[in-house]
Hints:
This protein has 395 residues and is α+β, with helices and mostly antiparallel strands. The protein folds into 2 domains: 152 residues, 2-Layer Sandwich (Beta-Lactamase), CATH 3.30.450; 165 residues, no CATH class. Helix content is 36%, strand content 17%. The protein is built from 14 helices and 11 strands. The strands form 2 sheets. Strands 6, 7, 8, 9, 10 and 11 form a 6-stranded antiparallel β-sheet that branches. A hairpin with a 5-residue loop joins β9 and β10. The longest helix is centred in the middle third of the chain and has 20 residues.
Amino acid sequence: xxDRSFVGALPAQPFxxxxxxxxxxxxxxxxxxxxxxxxxxxESVIQSWSRCVQxxxxxxxxxxxxxxxxxxxHSALARSRLLLQAAASDLNQLEQALAGTACTAILTDAxxxxxxxxxxxxxxxxxxxPLARRIGVxxxxxxxxxxxxxxxxxxDRASLxxxxxxxxxxxxxxxxxxxxxHDTSGRLAAVLDLTSEGQPFGFDAAALTALxxxxxxxxxxxxxxxxxxxxxxxxSPALLGTPMEGLAGLDANGRIAxxxxxxxxxxxxxPGGAGRHAEEVFGITLNRLALLTRAANAALHRLPxxxxxxxxxxxQAHDGAGALFQMRAPPLADAAAEPGATPLPQGTLRDNDxxxxxxxxxxxxGNVSKAARTLGVSRGLVYRHMKRARPPQPx
Length: 395
């Protein structure tokens, strides 16, 4: 079929008693009359239909989902190990939330390959979902045509594809909502999708998908950070630790390594914002941000824009054994709590990290095990810092 769609006014539309009638007219306009059905379906669906037509696909084709082999399953899971570790808790909560519905939660990688799928506690007579949710199946637009995962992969935006909005007639029993998940480089890392077969969503699936995609993205950003100072910020302290909090990762030189979308909006910078110095963006010195890692509570701070936000900071690092740790605030026994203790010197985050460890070891009387417990890190990390701090021995 030739793609003869064009932008123009449609003839007067009849009264639609059901969404199915509206979609049937949209398909007739586009696939039979070659008229762009603007106003009947979303622009993202129209563009997806157009891409499928340009690939010479036929809406009446019968779609067979990819066969899956053990090696394909293994490679898909291996590539997404860190993503799955970061998302595990939120995927479990989402599965519990969906337990009484006909919906399946599907997580794909950046290529559209399924790496996780939930299972409902209630059995439904599904024909397509058992095939579509298998680990290793590719849900990209090139494989299954118009669908929420495929549209999100192509546009990097949340999408909703309902029933007959799917390009292939064989898949019109599906209703799906998808949202993107990004990594520390700002690139698309995964897609979270909710799919129902045979019945429309009975809740706001788009909002629920976006909520959990945000929480998974925040977990992934923290998991991908290595020796980064992670700054948490929001206009209300009650929003810290929720999907609405802003997150920014600072490298050892005090420059922004990554920002999530909430932080970018609060700070008034483009998403990503990599390379800019923390003092320029936050209006607070690097030394002060480093000291916030030792505070038990968030602090109120005024940004250069004049906006007042609550800020907390935590040090994300890799202890050399593969486990991420969070540098907690030392107790009152810390050397900084002693009378006459001097503040941390200005410098990089790595410098402040080194001084904090040295002073904690000193406050613990040289007991490395006690210092490690105080900081919430491994003994190996403390030993390595002490080794680096020792002056070279003469030959």
